[in-house]
Amino acid sequence: MRVTFLGTGTSYGIPMPGCDCPVCRSDDPRDRRHRTAMLIESPDATLLLDTPPDLRTQCLAFDIRRIDGVLMTHDHADHLFGFDDLRAYTNRMPEPMPVWASAGTAQTLRRIFAYLDQPPLPGTSLARIALHVAEEPFDFMGFRLTPLPAEHGRADMIGWKFESEGRSFAAIPDCKTIPPETLALCRGVDLAVLDALRIRPHPTHMNLDESVAALKAIGAKHSLVIHLCHEVSHVQAEQRLPDGIAPAHDGLRIEW
After folding, report:
1. pTM to 2 decimals?
2. pLDDT in tens, 198-243
3. Torsion of CA 81, 23, 199, 148, to 10 degrees
4. Vertex 73, ends 10 and 107: CA angle to 5°?
5. What are phi and psi of 184, to 5 degrees?
6. What are the chain's domains?
7. Spatial distance between the Cα atoms of 256 and 252, rounded to a whole number of angstroms
């Protein structure tokens, strides 16, 4: 399994327009963070986690040639508004691209992208999507995929667990709390990735200390934090995090 971090930033992205803070003006390339998305690959399939507004740029930067399916986490703009960029891939597929989302996120997708239930006009193209509501674990192209409910403000939020050929990966990029049932599903995975917005508390996101506590409870072989805002540089996060937990950055690729 291989995980590529296409973006690791918050809803503003970093640098944030008009901001002169040290992180937004940093020369460290790890402090340049597009909105969050990940590519998860096995020998048989390529899956995308979320469709941020930066998706087209990310697909070009990482030369993504195919996407077999998409897993959505929630319906906030920074995870959703690149959805139509899937069109370039669906136009080359023999069947509609499968997309899985929570019930609330699926409802939002149908409202914002109303064409999902309409045929294209002659001579035009639309993203050809087969939208599914994810409530239970299911199998797809050699992956076992499990939705992971979590609390993130008013969002109908789910993270995802990926299992393939004895390898496992759990990602919950936005959350404030993780229910015990979800923690149990994540416990002992090879790689765990959690939200960690900043050092001080936030009402709908974990801060660094909260994320560390949750990652220790999960006990993954390798643990990363994601979704850092412009209050925390990559180096600052590295210095604050304990051994065994590190900040992710755009372009990070982990293969095992």
Report:
1. 0.97
2. 999 999 999 999 999 999 999 999 999 999 999 999 999 999 999 9
3. 30
4. 115
5. -65, -40
6. 2-255 (3.60.15.10)
7. 13
